[in-house]
Design a protein that fits this description.
Layout: E1 2-7, E2 11-17, E3 23-30, H1 34-46, E4 53-58, H2 87-94, E5 99-104, H3 105-116, E6 125-130, E7 134-140, E8 143-144, H4 177-181, H5 183-190, H6 203-222, E9 226-230, H7 239-251, E10 264-265, H8 273-283
Parallel strand pairs: 1-4, 4-5, 6-9, 9-10
Antiparallel strand pairs: 1-2, 2-3, 6-7, 7-8
Helix pairs in contact: 1-2, 3-8, 6-7
Bound molecules: adenosine-5'-diphosphate and zinc ion.
């Protein structure tokens, strides 16, 4: 039995999957306190058998480098009750014979999109989510990038759009990319939540400015052939096209797209990217 768990800030998904990483059966429920949330997932799995392998796609920051002391633990977070919780420890004591493979939610989504989604067959892609926060997962040469901790694309500093004096909403940095372009920043800046803003609202040019500058840094450093941009905010009509146009302008002739259609594309797996990624981790 192959199992996957996607642990999100607001909801958790647990699933059993096929040898190809497809969901056979899944259960979605709200993320509450750590023991309670993991308890629900563990009970659901136990009712179905003993998993041989469990892939876990988790919100961060989290220790994902296997030889480090913080491996498997949720690190400093503003999410009440979760800091220091050992996800891997909890699952290993419930399923002592299972292999447990942990990665970030965005790395798992990148793996899924590269395996069976919008980047199918590609070895070098980035997956970015623009939702309550901003995060990025990177597949480079077919391998997920971990680094010493893991990349934190959302906390990149980006140049200010001329005339923009919005202070930003990141509790740590104020005006990092997440502070200037996440869903909560849109609501704070314009006084209207992102999903209620019309397609011709100036908010979308501001979004395209900041996201294009963040993505330019990504192209300059890791050189993906596709940048898959998902998350709630990217459901806004026409946003991917606006980001591509801005990116082409600020790249000024550098980074010609290596594939047709520009670098920035929407995800193909939508809501399933994280859980499919968790199953692919279990199979990796
Ligand atoms: P989370 O990061 O918690 O998983 P989501 O990825 O679902 O959250 O993103 C939530 C954000 O997406 C909210 O700020 C919401 O206003 C915004 N959003 C949801 N639907 C749309 C839409 N159709 N167009 C633009 N923004 C949207
Ligand atoms: Zn920040």
């Amino acid at each position: 039995m192959i199992a996957g768990i996607e642990l999100g800030g607001t909801k958790t998904v647990v699933a059993i999957g096929s040898a190809e990483g497809r969901v056979i059966e899944e259960f979605r429920f709200p993320t509450t306190l750590p023991e309670e949330t993991l308890g629900v997932a563990i009970d659901w799995l136990r009712e179905r058998g003993q998993p041989a392998s469990i892939g876990v796609a988790a919100f961060g920051p989290i220790g994902i480098v296997s030889n480090r002391e913080n491996y498997g633990k949720i690190l400093e977070t503003t999410k009440a009750g979760w800091a220091g919780f050992s996800l891997v420890g909890c699952l290993a004591s419930a399923f002592p014979n299972a292999r447990i493979v942990l990665d970030t939610d965005v790395n798992a989504a990148a793996l899924a999109e590269a395996g069976i989604g919008a980047g199918a067959g590609l070895q070098d892609i980035a997956y970015i989510t623009i939702g309550t926060g901003i995060g990025g997962g990177i597949l480079s040469g077919g391998r997920l990038v971990h680094g010493a901790l893991h990349p934190e694309f959302g906390h990149l500093k980006v140049p200010r759009m001329p005339g923009d004096e919005f202070p930003g909403v990141c509790p740590f940095h104020g005006d990092c990319l997440e502070g200037l372009a996440s869903g909560p920043s849109i609501a704070a800046r314009w006084g209207t939540p992102a999903h209620e803003l019309p397609a011709d609202h100036p908010a979308w040019d501001t979004q395209a400015w900041y996201l294009a500058h963040g993505i330019l840094a990504l192209l300059a450093i890791v050189s993906p052939s596709r940048v898959i941009v998902g998350g709630g905010v990217c459901q806004a009509e026409g946003l991917h096209g606006k980001i591509n146009a801005k990116l082409t302008g600020i790249a000024a002739g550098y980074f010609p797209p290596v594939l047709g259609g520009g670098y920035v594309v929407p995800p193909a797996l939508g809501q399933q990217a994280g859980i499919c990624g968790a199953l692919l981790l279990a199979l990796s």
